[in-house]
């Protein structure tokens, strides 16, 4: 059970082509280096990767990748379901109905304090609130873009 109840490690930058997924060995320890975080894999994390590879009879890096993704997604799902249960028990609010944590938090504080919001009758007050609005949903659809405006 310890092999699937912790975050695994994966050589993201090593896996730069589909052909790498056909490799029949776990990449070397140095191939797990991330230029994004500038962190090398620890000896214990690399040993964990080798144990996972052996225990689940991975024949290719693709097999290891599939297993890594399943564990990663299922652990995240477990954490989120636990959070969802906590929100339901504490505030009777379902976290899946909210796009953001601030939206959930705002409803939770209103419910917890039983505070009723007053209707804004003053136009200047409304403008003050509208001017204070910042941000919104953000999405990065592409990881890399190249400007063509030479």
Structural features, described:
The protein has about 150 residues and is an all-alpha fold. Helices cover about 45% and strands about 0% of the residues. The protein has one domain. The chain has four helices and no strands.
Q: In terms of structural class, how would the helical and strand content be classed? A: mainly alpha
Low-confidence blocks of residues: none
The SSE string, one letter per element, is: HHHH
Helix count, DSSP H or I runs of 4 or more residues? 4
The total of beta strands comes to 0
Condensed summary:
This protein has 150 residues and is mostly helical.
Helix and strand topology:
Layout: H1 43-55, H2 61-91, H3 101-113, H4 123-131
EC number: 2.7.7.7
Protein name: DNA-directed DNA polymerase
Family: Belongs to the DNA polymerase type-B family.
Give me some keywords for this one:
mainly alpha, 150 residues, DNA-directed DNA polymerase, single chain, 4 helices
């Amino acid at each position: 059970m310890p092999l699937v109840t912790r975050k695994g490690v994966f050589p993201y930058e090593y896996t730069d082509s589909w052909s790498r997924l056909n490799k029949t060995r776990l990449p070397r320890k140095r191939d797990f280096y991330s230029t994004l975080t500038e962190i090398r894999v620890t000896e214990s994390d690399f040993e964990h990767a080798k144990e996972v590879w052996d225990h689940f009879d991975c024949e290719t890096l693709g097999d290891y990748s599939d297993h890594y993704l399943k564990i990663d997604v299922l652990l995240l799902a477990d954490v989120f379901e636990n959070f969802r249960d906590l929100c339901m028990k504490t505030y009777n609010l379902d976290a899946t109905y909210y796009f953001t944590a601030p939206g959930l938090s705002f409803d939770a504080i209103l419910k917890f304090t039983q505070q009723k919001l007053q209707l804004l009758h003053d136009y200047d007050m409304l403008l003050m609130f509208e001017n204070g609005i910042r941000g919104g949903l953000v999405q990065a659809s592409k990881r890399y873009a190249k400007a063509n405006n030479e």
